[in-house]
Design a protein that fits this description.
This protein has 266 residues and is α+β, with helices and mostly antiparallel strands. Helices cover 25% and strands 40% of the residues. The strands form two sheets. Strands 1, 2, 3, 4, 5, 6, 7 and 8 form an eight-stranded antiparallel β-sheet that branches.
């Protein structure tokens, strides 16, 4: 268990995966630590995803870092606590300092008291904390943009594998051959799965997730939904794109903050 905590603490990117009635979900996150426990502070632009979080989730680190690209990744599963923090009272302490050290957009938007006041909407968060790592297992690392996470239900929990495919493009039809990076048989039985990957530009202004949804039979994924695709090296935004992205993120986060505060008043 301590190995997972150490890896989580040292990493700059990670993932949070969980199960919903509509199927598995997963998003990339910045790994933080709250009083010795792994956590992530989700901006309230992700309110729809936050609302779907149950009491259990899987936290994973699948890119251990540039200094150790071949080191195995790790996945921890257990109960999680979700705390709504629309005005950043929880996030505004040590957590924002941790995130600013790992995530350049947070450094720009919340690296000083003046920036935090100006970008108050970026301080509104939902803090998701792993209460206890009940199970931990290793996975082969995501060593290229074509490596992805496969999330499905196993024994009532979100189970995470690192997978690859000869071609994620669906040019050959509505099904994909999916292979476990560990070499194990996936043994799909028609259950719903989510496959997702994520890559970021050097400045992290672009941090893009791509997905494939469907049902897994053996090693074959019958795709029912698709968004985006692997990008080995996303480039940074130009000036106008950067300004547009900042405004869009601000609007989405503001809407999330106002909705959480509206619920609190009811």
């Amino acid at each position: 268990m301590q190995d997972f905590h150490d890896l989580w603490r040292r990493s700059s990117v990670a993932e949070l995966s969980w199960l919903t009635p509509g199927g598995p979900c997963g998003i990339p996150v910045v790994p933080l630590e709250d009083k010795g426990r792994p956590c992530a502070a989700l901006p309230l632009s992700l309110l729809a995803e936050i609302d779907s979080l149950p009491g259990r989730a899987a936290l994973s680190v699948t890119v251990p870092g540039l200094s150790a690209p071949d080191r195995p990744g790790q996945v921890a599963t257990g109960p999680v606590q979700v705390r709504q923090d629309p005005r950043g009272k929880i996030f505004g302490g040590e957590l924002v300092e941790q995130e600013a050290s790992k995530h350049p957009p947070t450094r720009l938007r919340a690296g000083s008291l003046l920036a935090r006041n100006e970008n108050w909407w970026w301080m509104g968060r939902a803090v998701v904390t792993l209460s206890e790592a009940e199970a931990v297992h290793t996975v082969r690392p995501r060593a290229s943009a074509g490596h992805a996470l496969l999330v499905r239900e196993e024994r009532g929990d979100a189970a995470v594998r690192v997978v690859s495919s000869p071609d994620w493009s669906l040019r050959g039809g509505p099904s994909l051959r999916v292979e476990d990076r560990d070499g194990s048989a996936l043994e799909g039985r028609g259950e719903p799965v989510l496959v997702f990957g994520h890559q970021a530009s050097p400045d992290f202004e672009r941090w893009e997730r791509w997905t494939r949804r469907g049902r897994l039979n053996g090693q074959e994924l019958a795709v029912t939904g698709s968004d985006g695709g692997p990008d080995p090296s996303p480039g940074p935004f130009g000036l106008l794109e950067r300004l547009r992205n900042h405004r869009e993120v601000g609007r989405a986060c503001t809407a999330g903050v106002k909705e959480v505060e509206r619920r609190e008043r009811l």
